[in-house]
Design brief:
Elements: E1 8-11, E2 15-18, E3 25-33, E4 38-45, E5 51-54, E6 57-60, E7 65-72, E8 87-95, E9 118-127, H1 136-142, H2 148-186, H3 192-213, H4 218-227, H5 231-234, H6 241-255, E10 258-259, H7 260-266, H8 274-281, E11 288-291, E12 295-298, H9 300-316
Parallel strand pairs: 2-9
Antiparallel strand pairs: 1-3, 3-7, 4-6, 4-8, 5-7, 8-9, 10-12, 11-12
Helix pairs in contact: 3-6, 7-8
Protein name: MSP domain-containing protein
Keywords: Coiled coil, Membrane, Transmembrane, Transmembrane helix
InterPro entries: Ig-like_fold, MSP_dom, PapD-like_sf, VAP
């Protein structure tokens, strides 16, 4: 394809309206895209109050075409010498594939930005009802033996049929456009699975916060006091040992299996030491569990509590819990 080849072809090359007082008339333009690109078009006129263009903007797919109906509004008086100085301008430019009409930026047909915009000018011609000519079918009717009145009736019926066909095609195009718009608006930004996953993550985070800051049992605290040799050995630490153990459990959910000294250094909520972490592991039903000689892991008590929480939560979300 040569670069000088136009983006679109317009038929006919001028707009012809059958002019009658207080009666609207229309003229259809067929715009064809004979390129491999998506081409956007826009129709402008020097007299926007006299004409109704539908559609006045659109995007034509490669090797496709569309019909633009230009309706001339009803007038109350005849123009001078049946001459019309109105002009139409049809602009076209290449756009990206799958670009919809609503997605076209305001400067699509602006030449100031260096965009290549082609223009096709059309003039307007008024035709009186007496001088209007039909197509080959009408000429055959004129040569027939039918009376002039019958010929006029057949011509009127043919025009009405053509108008109905054009209107049906235009309505089909508008229906397809509305379907595309509805699909775009009804498509959710996130899927239902993504929303449920985010809700589950939020609830799990709330459970972990509750696990960290809930009050400990008096039995666990008293047993920890018995297991500790003295208050001075642990230093100036918090007396709420169960809360401290659960804070370390939250750290283990993030980093997994950790060394005893590593998890003590990772704690930023309170002062911790190697001996303090080992003492927390000795609490009955503690959420911490000594693994080997120098590692700490989540105890079965913490995993069972977390599993029971998930089993209770999933039915509330309408999901089935499987063992």
């Amino acid at each position: 394809m040569s670069d000088n080849k136009p983006l679109i072809y317009v038929e006919p090359e001028e707009l012809k309206f059958q002019f009658e007082l207080e009666k609207p008339s229309y003229c259809d333009l067929k715009v064809s895209n004979n390129t491999k690109h998506h081409v956007a078009f826009k129709v402008k006129t020097t007299s926007p109050k006299k004409y109704f263009v539908r559609p006045n903007t659109g995007v034509i797919h490669p090797w496709d075409s569309c019909v633009i109906r230009v309706t001339h509004q009803a007038q109350r008086e005849y123009p001078q010498d049946m001459q019309c100085k109105d002009k139409f301008l049809l602009q076209s430019t290449i756009v990206s594939p799958n670009r919809d009409v609503d997605d076209l930026p305001p400067d699509t047909f602006n030449k100031d930005g260096g965009r290549a915009v082609e223009e096709f000018k059309l003039s307007v011609v008024y035709i009186s009802p007496k001088s209007s000519k039909g197509n080959t079918d009408d000429e055959a009717l004129k040569g027939s033996k039918s009376s002039p009145d019958n010929n006029q009736v057949l011509q009127n019926l043919k025009e009405e049929r053509d108008a109905a066909v054009q209107q049906t095609q235009q309505l089909q195009q508008e229906l397809e456009t509305l379907k595309r718009h509805r699909q775009r608006r009804s498509s959710p930004g996130f899927s239902l699975k993504s929303a449920l996953f985010m809700a589950l993550v939020g609830i799990i985070f709330g459970f972990l916060m509750k696990l960290c800051f809930s009050s400990p049992s008096s039995e666990s605290v008293s047993k920890l006091h018995g297991a500790s040799s003295s208050r001075s050995k642990l230093g100036n630490y918090s007396t709420n040992y169960a809360i401290n153990a659960r804070c370390f459990t939250c750290l283990l959910l993030d980093i997994g299996l950790a060394r005893t000294d590593e998890i003590a250094w990772s704690c930023t909520l309170f002062l911790a030491s190697l001996e303090f972490v080992e003492s927390l592991c000795s609490i009955p039903n503690s959420s911490l569990f000594p693994y080997g000689n120098c590692f700490v892991a989540r105890s079965p008590v913490a995993l069972v509590a977390f599993r029971e929480f998930i089993a209770m939560l999933l039915p509330e979300l309408g999901l089935e819990y499987e063992e």
